[in-house]
Amino acid sequence: MISTKDFAAVEEKVAKTSPIIGPGTTEARILNVQLIKNRSFDTDGSVALVLNLETPAVTDPNFQGFFINPNDPSSPRHLGQIGRVKYKAYPMKDSTVTRNMPDGTTKTINNKRDNEYLQAVINLANTLGAPIRDAVDNIAASTIFDHVDAVSKIFANRSMVFTVAASGYKNAKGYTAYDLFLPYDKTGKKAYVLKGNEADLIAFDRALHVSEPKEDKPVAGFEPNNDFSL
After folding, report:
1. What does pTM read for this prediction?
2. Which of helix, strand or coil describes residue 208?
3. For a FRET experiment, which of 15, 90, 172, 222 has its CA 20 to 30 Å from that of 46?
4. Is 99 strand, coil or helix?
5. What are the boundaries of each domain within the chain?
């Protein structure tokens, strides 16, 4: 005889909200800003400008954020999702680009890493408002690494709404993870705006803004650590 009488109830597993920011549109505050040296730094000086972000507190009762200090298990946890978001998909470095002009001629453009970094900082500061831009303009530093330390203190805890793009890869455990970055839009829409100005924000399109891993070869990606701490 078939009967449910002797079966104990089994609680269904509920999917937990990830503690890591994923691709999409999200409101977040800046925890800090860093310049990360790329693997090729010693040969080409390339760096990535990285925004360490945290979303507002997650309301999911099953949510468990990362420890604020991962080396201290008694440390409080982040209340929101966190993530490292590169300012752009490609590294900042000195480079020379040759472009074909409409009149049939070519033009050589010399890109300077430090200028590219400063322009990114200016763009962020302008979005955050005139007082932030004034504070950034008053920074005097010997290197971009010294400069970004000062910028980080000014940008800390400032919130914006971001459109986050991603490049997928297989991490060391074989799971799909994402390198996050801010997308570029030729129409003039922005990858980050102050809350309330979302009409100027790039509309997230997964087909356009996310590339999934094409092979199963594990590669090393960013892992949350105490760089997220204030």
Report:
1. 0.83
2. helix
3. 172
4. strand
5. 24-91+126-228
